[in-house]
Every structure is written in structure tokens, then in C-alpha cells.
């Protein structure tokens, strides 16, 4: 490269490194040459843009915590278990028939006292009724046969379960002997690792076999219960299709709608799914037993049944009397239970106190079984108690400050819990906490330290004269 070329290259580098962009020089020159009014407007725009950016992006969100509190109060807490079921024995029982034909004889009148099964009337059946009666009898015999098979199946399941239970006991004895002694009595030698593994595995297998046998036994019990229900229903259906109309219960005859010579005819419909004819029973009278026992049956889960005992008080509500509440007590608890679709349920029999309204079998009922009552105790809302492991705590608001307090809890229900120690009556307890997050849009404080840009009462907010140059 010649000296002339090197000199030119060096000059070009100097220009690139030192020369400012032309458009920046132009803007600066124009701004410096402009009037003070133009300079003021430009400066105001710059400040406004900066303030807007701060309003939108510059301030952090603010979180406000709100506490909902309740006062620890002294009172009574009732713990109960809820369930639903049906009335199995009412104080009024309908006299019904599914037969059709001419009434040939009436044996009773209104006001007469009858015993269960006593004849009320005779009917000369028409051909259709005779056919239904024959079919009902066949269905009854089939139901009885199925019941006998279920009973036989239960006996086999019972034997299998006890054999499996004994096998578990024998296997457990073998494990105990192995743990207590180093020598195998069968070989008179020290147990090998393989022998120990086999003995342990045998116990596991026998336990599994017992669980299977126990489940089959429970299913067999359920099969018997279902079969018994079907037998009773088949017998009732046969009786309702019989030429003899009988009293379904003992008591006083009321509302009898039978007389010799009249025609009785039960209504019938055709099933849209199976095409079978469904005959609806016709009510021809009632039997009132004012001294009879009103009984309800409800099914409870295995979680609830362990807390239910005989003679516990019960409150009941019937769909037929939505505005009334009835009372009663637990008569019996069936601890055998039954299994259906893998779910175990336990029937509880409840005796209702005497009532002045008509209650019929199969009416729907909902119950609350009172399992425990605590009086003169401190209670707080259930949501106020936080439990971790064996320790329960509540948050107490004292002088505007929150304090975590360890407490001892007693019985509870769906809404409240008893506190036996840790807090006093009248303490303010935190029930729930709400966090409300707000943006800075509502905060009117200025990023420049004041609510305005300074200045006097009039003018643009800038004090003094026009701004100076750069």
C-alpha cells in the first residue's frame, strides 16, 4: 500500500469514529434554535410520557388481607349421622288387591277389628284374573327355590370361610415357631433362608384366601337377603291376585270400599321396554293399628355404623310430611351387613314415637341419628380449626395481631367443633382469610414525590420562566 493510500484510510477511520450522526446534529440544532415555547412543549411531552409509563408499569401490585372472624361461644353441640330409608311398618296399612271380578262375599265392615291374614272379602275371578293368579303362584315357587339355593350357598361359604380362617391360624403358628426357634421341627435342622421365605409366603397366601372366602360369605348373606325380599314380594303378589282379599295387618278396618255384587278391577299398563303387562294394585280399604309399632329401616356405611348404638335418639323427616319432624330411637343395629356392587351396608332399625298422622309402609324417610351431645362447651366454626398430624391450631385475633394457638378438640358436626382447651369464651377466631391484589392504578401518589409537578396556583405547574437550553 502506498503512503497516499495509507493516509486516506487513516482519515476515513478518524471520520467514522468521531463524527456524530447527521440526524442527531440536525435535531439538536433545530431544538437549540427554536423558541422557548417550543422547548417548553417538548419538555412537557417528555415528562408526560415518563409519568404515563410509571403509572402503567412502574409501581408494584399491592395485596390487602381481609380476615373473617367469629367469636368462640359456649353452648351445646350435637353430633349426628344422616341416612335415608323407608318405613317398614306403619300405623296405617292399605288393603289392596290386583284381582278382577265380582265381589261375592264381604266379611267385615268399617270399625271392625281384624287380625293379620283374616278374610275381608271373596271375589269370583274372571279369566284374566285366574291367569294372573296362576302366574303369581309359579313366581312364588321359583322365588322360594332361589331362596333355598341362597341358603345352601351361604352354608358352603360359611364352611369355606372358617376353613380359610383355620388355615391362616396354622400358617401364623408356623411363622411364630420359626421366629421363636432356629431349628425346623420338621427337619430338625436350622431353618434355611428358602424355608423361611416359603413359610412367610404361605401366611400371605392364606390371608389372601381368607379375604376371598370372607367376601364370598358376605355376598352369600346379601344373596339371602335379596332372595328373602323376592319371596316376600312374590307371596304378596300372589295374595293380591288371589280370590280372597285378606287383612295385611292387625287393626281396625277403615275406608272399606267393598260390597257384595260390585266389580273390582285393578288397572294395568304395558311396559315400553319389556312389553310385559304391569298390574297396579287397587286400594279397597285401610287397616289402622294405633298401638302398632312404627318402624323405619335405613342403611349406613361401614364408616358410620361403628358410631351407632341401640337407644340413641333419632329425628326423622318423611317426604309425605315435609313440614313435620318426627322422633324415635334406634332399636337394633345389624352388624352382619350386606355387600352390593362392592359396597357394604348395615341396616339400622328405628322405632318411631307415636304420631297423629297416617304413616304407611314404604314411605321414604330421612333420619339424623344423634351419636353424641356436648353441653356447656366452647365451640368454634369447623373451618377455623387447622389440623396437622395430631396437632390442631386456631388463629386468634388479639389487639389487631394474629396468634397461632394450639388447641384440644372434642366432638364435632358438619359446621362446628368443640374446643376443650387452648382458648376462652369470647376470643375472636379467624374463620377464613381473603387476599385481594390491586394494581397501582388507584394510587394517586406521584413518582416524583408529590401530587403535582410543583409550581403556583396558575400556569403550567413549572415555576419560573421558560426553560433554558440543553
From TrEMBL:
Which GO molecular function annotations are given, in alphabetical order?
A: efflux transmembrane transporter activity
Q: Where is the composition biased (Gly residues)?
A: 451-470
Region annotated Disordered, chain positions? 435-470
* UniProt xrefs under SUPFAM superfamilies: Single hybrid motif
Residues annotated as domain YknX-like beta-barrel: 295-369
A GO cellular-component term linked to this record: efflux pump complex
Q: Which residue ranges traverse the bilayer? A: none
Domain CzcB-like C-terminal circularly permuted SH3-like as annotated: residue spans: 378-432
Protein name per its UniProtKB record: Uncharacterized protein
Q: Which organism is it from?
A: Candidatus Woesebacteria bacterium RIFCSPHIGHO2_01_FULL_41_10
